[in-house]
Amino acid sequence: MELYDDDDDEGGGDDGDDAIEVEDDEQFEESIPSANGKKKMSKSKSKEMGETTKVFLPGDKMEDGDELTYDSSAYEMYHAAQTNAPCLSFDVIPDSLGDSRTEFPMTAYIVAGTQAPPGKQNHVIVMKMSQLDKTSPSDDESDSDDELLDEEPDLDTAMFNHTGGVNRIRHSPIPNRHIVATWSERGKVHIWDISQQVISVDNPSISAEASHSKDIKALFTFDGHQVEGFALDWSKTVPGRLATGDCRKNIHLWSPVEGGSWHVDQRPYSAHTDSVEDIQWSPNEQNVFASCSVDKTVRIWDARAKPTKACMLTTQAHDADVNVISWNRNEPFIASGGDDGVLKVWDLRQFQSGVSVAMFKHHTGAITSVEWHPTDSSVFVASGSDDQVTLWDLAVERDSEADGKGRQLDVPPQLLFIHMGQKDIKEVHWHHQLPGVLISTAESGFNIFKTISV
After folding, report:
1. Where does the record place its WD repeats (predicted)?
2. What is the pLDDT of residue 409?
């Protein structure tokens, strides 16, 4: 399916997101126009695996004539979407369709921010991906299941203009409202109400108009950082509370006030000595948050203390910039990923020892995203600039009986799955209402998939 923004550009630069496409399974085919300004993709057949196929691992040598193709049997679901301008950041929008949904076809809502080329207009885009079917039916599935697989994936969008590229975007857990915060490359943090955009993607009669870019007013804007940043996280225990960190090492805390506005503490938390790259609030303690930095550290803060004394714990976490962290919802663990391509897991009960409880060196490029599974406390996902999304399970141990059988793979036993096919992957997130479903964004677009591993 393709959606075209044929809105005339009246100033403010060209539209940097005038086409959005959905790809079913693995490759584009000729699009077929349909109603409501949409175009549906014709189904493409998965390539048959040849007799000489073998498992490819990053680092393997490609011979002349070799061709990479994905193994559809490794996925329960695999679809892709593409925006005209890449999105560095996105977040999953919670919906009212129910939790723990496992039936196909699936539906997912996300919000993303673009990084358009210079002179192009940037956007915040709300997307509804629906009719997301299984990759392929099994032999014992019924004819009715086969009929469901004939449905084409749909993408409905609503967007509005954003000044500057979106470095990071996060949906808040504020109940009964769809509030998001964006970090602009222009050095400002904005808070937006996207409730109307979410409504519009569910309503075909207004979705075509909403898909055209427009200007809306932010609920609140903070320009006190004065430089751009990437670190941003909403509190999971105090609705509306926010923390933001910038490239000058400063962190500011936000508190909601009556009337739908926010108060930002002008006193920065500045114990880091270089750019703050990521922030995570504790999932169960109201006043505790963690941060990571180019200064190679991960720090734990107590928001009840004065900013100059709020840094309670520090560890030299990596031998290079620490890019991302994720706080486990069920165990006292923090996962971190660095420019060195290393993933580490820290037990907060042993944090000051400076020794991680797990370390994995598989990625050959900087780690760009890491996130714990929402319910399985031993599983996490990571992405890297080496074009890999990797799935890990700390509970897995090496099987000595299987070591002598088949090809000996030089990978950690905890590595469950490697997903490839995207270029320059920036973020990956679990969908909390679709068990096992992952969404990733890259320079080449979005993937939404579910593996057979989790």
Report:
1. 269-302, 315-349, 360-402
2. 67
